[in-house]
Specification:
Elements: E1 8-9, H1 16-20, H2 23-32, E2 36-38, E3 43-46, H3 49-56, E4 62-63, H4 72-77, H5 89-101, H6 103-106, H7 110-127, E5 129-131, H8 132-137, H9 139-149, H10 160-169, H11 176-180, H12 182-195, H13 206-215, H14 224-252, H15 254-262, H16 267-277, E6 284-288, E7 292-294, E8 297-299, E9 304-307, H17 309-312, H18 348-365, E10 368-371, E11 375-376, E12 385-387, E13 389-393
Parallel strand pairs: 1-2, 3-9
Antiparallel strand pairs: 2-3, 4-6, 5-13, 6-9, 7-8, 10-13, 11-12
Helix pairs in contact: 5-14, 7-18, 9-14, 10-12, 10-14, 12-14, 14-18, 15-18
Length: 394
């Protein structure tokens, strides 16, 4: 199939309506073909699982070094992080962050995070009705992540989620959501510059170790603000999305909650299924560095391609009955809710530890999860709930 035969469509996954209810547009994109041209944004979209997976595992052709967003000016501004770089530089800067976030490195925090999860669930049971986002999904990362990074108690913590939100919005089109975040991005940049000064982060924290490495000449000092920011984004907004979706899905599917309560061995699969059916990341772009066939379609050099993770994870070509939430789903570990390949979410091990700990605490204490109607977020990149009333019954 030649490039000029690629279907063209006026479907725009960044309208308010599509963001709030994306799955019909995703299905239509998948049905149009393996690669589709989005008239609204002048980029190619890939919405099927196999093609998204293949692109993520060919980082040489589908490059992140020229940015992973839709807007070229913002792509240039975001260059240099592990998220927007290619090997060998990517491996170097990612390794500086990933050394703290690998499963082995996180083992020392296992009891701490499980203890925090038990405490939070106990408090919410006593509280009665609470909000799934502010009282549960946000509370956990805000309590854990700043402490691990060494942020000063008196500064920054209350702004972390807003900064992360603005950062992820900037990977979308140059719309009002993106532009309204510019002041927050400037604020975050100034804060990270201050935190790069020795003595401003808590001694022996992850962040302080990076600052110490720079002082000793092990890493370039100009990389520090970006590296500290690399800790921030993957550890916050995606986790908030997954944890709030957790309560909504189990409140909507009490039979699936009964399966988790009956067998803790299901918890890992259950969390993967949450990430599959309500993927925290909607998708990112890549720049094609050389002519490449994808799904029988030829993509030319310098084409920008939007890889839609949220669509791929509901592709009926990959998953049986993909719209059904099933904690025992075969092969669910192959989802790409956190991306995949060398650019898979660097904070996913921490997110999994949080999610597994909370599921364990809930399953041991809570008989049923009662929910109200969710309000969904309007966000360019993160699929998530804005608010959801919840009551936990023991």
């Amino acid at each position: 199939m030649a490039a000029n035969t690629i279907p063209r469509t006026d479907i725009d996954p960044y309208t308010d309506a599509s963001i709030l209810s994306p799955y019909e547009d995703y299905r239509r994109l998948r049905d149009l073909g393996p690669v589709v041209w989005l008239e609204a944004h002048q980029v190619f979209a890939v919405a099927r699982y196999r093609e998204v997976y293949d692109a993520l595992h060919d980082h040489t052709t589908f490059s992140s070094g020229s940015g992973v967003g839709l807007t070229e000016t913002l792509n240039k501004a975001q260059k240099g992080s592990s998220f927007t770089s290619d090997p060998p530089y990517h491996g170097y800067v990612r390794g500086l962050v990933a050394r703290h976030l690998k499963p082995k490195a996180l083992e020392q925090f296992h009891d701490y995070i499980e203890g925090w999860a038990n405490k939070l669930v106990d408090e919410l049971v006593e509280k009665g009705t609470f909000d799934a986002v502010t009282d549960f999904a946000q509370a956990f990362p805000l309590a854990v992540v700043p402490d691990l990074l060494g942020w000063p108690v008196e500064e920054g913590k209350e702004r972390l989620l807003e900064w992360a939100t603005a950062g992820f919005n900037a990977f979308g089109p140059l719309n009002e959501r993106t532009m309204s975040g510019f002041p927050l991005l400037q604020e975050m940049s100034e804060f990270l510059q201050r935190m790069s000064v020795p003595g401003n982060l808590r001694p022996d924290s992850w962040g302080a170790q990076l600052v110490s490495d720079a002082k000793e000449g092990k890493i370039e000092e100009h990389l520090l603000p970006g590296l500290l920011g690399d800790f921030l984004a993957p550890s916050m907004d995606t986790s908030v999305s997954a944890l709030s979706s957790m309560l909504w899905l189990f409140g909507s599917h009490p039979d699936q909650w009964d399966r988790v309560r009956a067998d803790e061995a299901v918890i890992s699969s259950a969390f993967n299924e949450i990430l599959r059916i309500e993927s925290p990341l909607r998708g990112f772009t890549r720049l094609v560095t050389r002519e490449r066939e994808l799904g029988g379609v030829t993509l030319e050099t310098d084409a920008r391609v939007l890889l839609l993770y949220g669509s791929a994870n509901r592709d009926e070509r990959q998953w049986s009955d993909p719209e059904t939430f099933d904690v025992n789903r075969p092969g669910v570990a192959q989802h790409i809710g956190f991306g995949h390949g060398i650019h898979g979410c660097v904070g996913q091990a921490l997110s999994r530890l949080e999610g597994h700990s909370l599921l364990k605490a809930l399953s041991r204490r809570v008989r049923s999860i009662e929910i109200g109607e969710p309000t969904w977020r309007l966000h360019n990149t993160i699929r998530g709930i804005a608010s959801l009333p919840v009551s936990l019954r023991t």
